[in-house]
Give the backbone structure.
Amino acid sequence: MAKVKRLCVYCGSARGAEPVFQEAASALGMLLAAAGIELVYGGGRNGLMGVLADAALAGNGRVTGIMPGHLHDREVAHPDVQIVVVASMHERKQRMFDLADAFVVLPGGLGTLDETIEIITWKQLDLHDKPVIVVDIAGYWAPLLALVEHAIARGFAAARSRDFFRVATRIEDVLPMLAAMPEPTRPSKSTLV
């Protein structure tokens, strides 16, 4: 059983077009705070990132944001969370990875898609075996899941690619899924990017 003390959540810096996305981010933040799991995220105050952090903070949860200096200087950092300022987007992803015991993906845009593909690819390359859960709220990630199946069907990805992540459709399933996943069996490589 995986022991998760810090959970990295990738999600959008926009709120999305449907209220269900904000509701999911808020529910996850509250669940993390109630479970005593620290939230590690991109550090933003806007969009789903802000909703997620606000909910965790409202439940007296611990929240750490990792933000490159160029974004911090634009004053998009959440004012109420512990912010770690790094030099680049690459360092941001590395620090988020280093801090996290597991990863959860909520709806988001191109940045969230980039983070998702990268963390799954790192797992494929045996750079880590930490749990990864894609939360397919209201079918948001269905095109990504279909693309993975397409890559498998066309011979560009192995069938075992499906094993690099799990899919949840409800926020309330995330923590039980994480608890049921095996504890990572090997240390992560120290430098991934």
